[in-house]
Amino acid sequence: MAGGLVVERSADEAVASVFSLSSAAPHLFGDRRGAFERDLRGLLRETSATGRSSERTRDIRLELRRPSPSSRARPGGSVHPRQPVVPSAQRRGRATWNPVPVGLTWTKA
Question: Which of 31, 42, 87, 93 has its CA 20 to 30 Å from the CA of residue 9?
Fold first, then answer.
């Protein structure tokens, strides 16, 4: 997805956006989550008289992969019923992944 779009957000949307980051997921704050959210909302109020903020989006690259045929066996030798049986020497090796071409369609809400 190409970046560069400017997105306007309410304080609630900005807080939700921060908490959606893996580095700021709510469970990581433990019992200090409430204090962090209060501080964040206070900072947003100080920087915007209207209660809205804007953000310029970044480029996003999505790369999906699936297991290569040599890594499809499960630990202990069991194999998914629709996957080929893989020799044990290959099962012990390191799994490799092959890129899967994916077509994505982005639409405006």
Answer: 31
Give Cα separations from 84 to 13, 77, 97 (angstroms). 47, 12, 16
At 30, give phi and psi (nearest 5°).
60, -135
Asked if residue 85 belongs to a domain, the reply is: yes
47, 52, 54, 60: CA torsion to nearest 10: 120
pLDDT tens profile 12-70 = 999 998 999 889 999 999 999 999 999 999 999 999 988 898 888 888 777 777 776 66
Please give the residue range of the domain that contains residue 38: 6-56
**pTM for the whole thing?**
0.52
Same domain, 19 and 46: yes
33 belongs to a structural domain:
yes
The per-residue pLDDT for range 62-102, each reduced to its tens digit, is: 777 777 666 655 555 554 555 444 444 444 444 444 444 44
d(CA 67, CA 80): 12
